[in-house]
Write a sequence for this structure.
């Protein structure tokens, strides 16, 4: 017998959207008939695959960024052509606090600034402790770059005659004439003012032209390279400040002090017993920084050329009372003790506002008033010389 014909299945013409809907409905029905574990596995699998694709693309992008921005192999590019100096730390200083001229950052906490002649950068730390650490680290780096940077010593080219270490001293009253209380015009540039003082056109230690740093307690104006050596000696030996960058250090009393002393007079004190008093400065012939460090250390730490006989406490007190800045510096250089400094400070403070430059010098060299009977004098000294600290 002939086989029975299969039943006829009606052909239905479905659109693409209807086919997709039917497929989704069938998949949903199948999933509902699966055990719960299988359903969970089927739901997680697409999600995991999608996540892995995302992680993979993220890693790929990160690797591409690293590969693109990583330091090239030596010789792969012209490093000198690609490198751009943002801030030269050797000519910079670091200050706590936001930029007073920037209203946007005036209320931000934990800010500090890196200030150079070319640009001022405002930075913000996450805490006060971190800010202090950054400032300390940057100041340390600046000091090392200045004192141990590459190249011969000094980097400046010396021109003209150098400043001799010796020379006659006429006491504390010579040099530029300034008001007795040390007043100066607001906005005055310390570099321009101090350049006119005898000896200040050259570095006191190596003779380089146009020095723009100074030691507040040693009363000498020095160049960039010698300032690095002074920093290397430590703040207990030399308190170094920039004439260009540390504007807040150059208060009227400090300016008056430097105007009354000057490199010529200061070197006559620091090198009074040098065999050739009119010789070139101590570091003028140094070829390396190590040699310069030894020469400058011999001058200010060992004080090898200072007249030790100048350490007369009575004479120092009299010089302070007479407001003779250079003579007071000579007594300090000779090694005046704490009692002599205290007596000199009290004698100067009794002179009132006119004694501000002398008080600035004594305070920067560690003078202090002690004892209840000196309380009033201590207040006067603090008011007169507080800006020099």
């Amino acid at each position: 017998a002939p086989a029975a014909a299969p039943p006829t299945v009606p052909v239905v013409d479905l659109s693409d959207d209807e086919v997709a809907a039917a497929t989704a409905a069938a998949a949903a029905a199948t999933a509902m008939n699966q055990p719960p574990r299988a359903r969970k596995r089927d739901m997680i699998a697409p999600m995991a695959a999608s996540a892995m694709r995302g992680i993979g693309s993220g890693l790929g992008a990160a690797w591409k960024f690293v590969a693109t921005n990583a330091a090239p192999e030596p010789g792969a590019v012209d490093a000198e052509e690609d490198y751009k100096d943002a801030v030269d730390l050797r000519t910079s200083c670091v200050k706590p606090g936001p930029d007073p001229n920037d209203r946007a950052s005036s209320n931000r906490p934990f800010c500090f600034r890196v200030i150079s002649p070319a640009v001022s950068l405002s930075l913000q730390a996450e805490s006060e402790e971190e800010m202090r650490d950054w400032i300390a680290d940057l100041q340390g780096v600046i000091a090392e770059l200045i004192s141990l940077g590459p190249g011969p010593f000094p980097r400046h080219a010396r021109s003209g005659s150098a400043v001799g270490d010796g020379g006659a001293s006429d006491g504390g009253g010579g040099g530029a004439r300034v008001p007795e209380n040390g007043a100066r015009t607001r906005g005055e540039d310390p570099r321009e003012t101090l350049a006119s003082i005898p000896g200040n056109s050259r570095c006191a230690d190596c003779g380089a032209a146009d020095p723009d740093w100074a030691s507040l307690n040693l009363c000498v104006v020095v160049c960039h390279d010698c300032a690095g050596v002074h920093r290397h000696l430590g703040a207990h030996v030399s308190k170094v400040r920039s004439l260009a960058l540390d504007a807040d250090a150059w208060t009227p009393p400090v300016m008056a002090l430097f105007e009354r002393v000057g490199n010529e007079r200061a070197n006559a004190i620091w090198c009074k017993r040098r065999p050739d008093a009119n010789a070139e400065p101590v570091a003028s012939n140094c070829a390396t920084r190590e040699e310069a460090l030894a020469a400058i250390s011999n001058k200010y730490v060992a004080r090898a050329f200072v007249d030790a006989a100048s350490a007369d406490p009575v004479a120092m007190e009299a010089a302070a009372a007479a407001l003779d800045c250079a003579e007071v510096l000579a007594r300090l250089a000779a090694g005046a003790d704490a009692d002599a400094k205290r007596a000199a400070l009290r004698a100067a403070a009794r002179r009132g506002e006119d004694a501000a430059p002398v008080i600035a010098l004594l305070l920067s060299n560690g003078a202090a008033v002690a004892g209840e009977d000196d309380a009033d004098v201590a207040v006067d000294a603090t008011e007169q010389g507080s800006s020099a600290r």
In short: Residues 200 and 307 are 23 Å apart (CA to CA). Confidence is low (pLDDT under 50) at residues 65-84, 157-163, 167-186.
